[in-house]
Structure prediction request, 266 residues.
Amino acid sequence: MSELSYAAIMLLILLGGSALGVFVQPFLSEHHRSQETTDLIRLVITMLVTFAALVLGLLTSSVKASFDVVDNDLRSFSINLIQLDRLMHQYGSETDSARALLRSYTAAAIASTWPTEPKPPGDYYPTRVEPPSSNSIESVKLGDMLAQIEIDLHGLNPDDSVHGRQALVMVNQFEQLMRLRWRLIEEAHSSISMPFYMVLAFWLVILFASFGLSAPRNVLSYITILLGALSIASVVFVILDLDNPFSGLFMVSSQPMREALAQLSR
Prediction:
């Protein structure tokens, strides 16, 4: 289910809670409308509003920070691709096949991770690489390409000490690249669990039901509740969308990878 679907469900649930409060309001007896009861309801509503605002604010801050971490890691990953390619170029012609495979990997990663964007031009890479889960740089085929590069690097036979040191540096650079790749794969998964989402929805339903219970029966009150529900639903959409950095409306940019591919193609 998409983030927009979850936000739409949240909107319907909140409006349903408000409608329930509006429906129940005329059936309340006089002692339920007393000043003491009204003051107590307002106190509880104030507490719920503060608590909900705190939770939503913390969630927004947390997912935004996680999104920025993924964006920075992707930039570091792209830089490592360029550095590895330059090291292989400096080593000599023995690494030409590994360089070509690294270029193919980069193009295929762009095509599979950002399927809605234009694919890199050319037919030197597999254009149909399906990630096993949500859009990310994780894929069996992409992993096999990197594994072959690793085999090629370990299979080098340096002729002298200079090439020996260069080979060691390339292997270390490749290991750093793989660490960044696996970090990105782990960071691509959502950190908000469905039980927490359901509990949050329950809190908000109680809040909006209390709004409907105490709201004056006029059009302006109903429009205000509707706008409040829309605002909360939009916040939920932003939180869920940012929590999936490789899909949805808010995605990490493919520009660092495309710039790395341009460098690898020189």
